[in-house]
């Protein structure tokens, strides 16, 4: 994960044009690795899926943070990233209580992978649709 995050700084890409596309592609890869972990009983395939998920997720977070930071002034960094972390923790807590906790659904591990992969599929769809719209709008100008 750290190697892929470091690589972002060295890749020359027009992030205004391809940033959301990259977010969509890496979210789809996260969803695919979680689907792999849901549909297989092979422990080595699950480990490979976890490694792929973690690397793509770290890259996804790095790109998303970069996309946000580019448009902020220095005075707004702490407020924006503090608020983002707070919202992320709230969403993670609610999702964990609903999916994992015995007071919620109390789902087994395999079903949890299915829920989380569906979540990443939904996010990937949003980013891919938005990126296609952005690319088409820029190309039509």
From TrEMBL:
Keywords (alphabetical) are: Membrane, Transmembrane, Transmembrane helix
**For this UniProt entry, which segments traverse the membrane?**
51-70, 77-99, 119-138
- Write one Pfam family the protein is assigned to: Folate_carrier
Domain of life from the UniProt record: Eukaryota
Q: Does the keyword Protein transport apply?
A: no
Q: From the Swiss-Prot or TrEMBL record, what is one GO molecular function term?
A: thiamine transmembrane transporter activity
Keyword Cytoplasm appears in the UniProt entry: no
An annotated GO cellular component: plasma membrane
What family is it from?
Answer: Belongs to the reduced folate carrier (RFC) transporter (TC 2.A.48) family.
Check the record and name the PANTHER family matching this protein.
FOLATE TRANSPORTER, THIAMINE TRANSPORTER 2
The protein depicted here goes by the name: Thiamine transporter 2
């Amino acid at each position: 994960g750290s190697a892929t995050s470091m690589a972002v700084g060295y890749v020359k890409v027009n992030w205004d044009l391809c940033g959301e596309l990259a977010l969509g592609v890496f979210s789809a890869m996260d969803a695919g690795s979680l689907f792999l972990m849901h549909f297989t009983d092979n422990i080595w395939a699950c480990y490979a899926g976890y490694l792929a998920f973690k690397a793509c997720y770290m890259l996804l977070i790095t790109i998303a943070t970069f996309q946000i930071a580019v448009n902020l002034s220095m005075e707004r960094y702490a407020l924006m990233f503090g608020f983002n972390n707070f919202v992320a923790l709230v969403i993670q807590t609610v999702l964990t209580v609903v999916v994992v906790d015995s007071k919620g659904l109390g789902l087994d591990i395999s079903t949890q992978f299915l829920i989380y992969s569906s979540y990443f599929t939904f996010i990937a769809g949003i980013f891919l649709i938005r990126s296609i719209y952005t690319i088409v709008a820029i190309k039509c100008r």
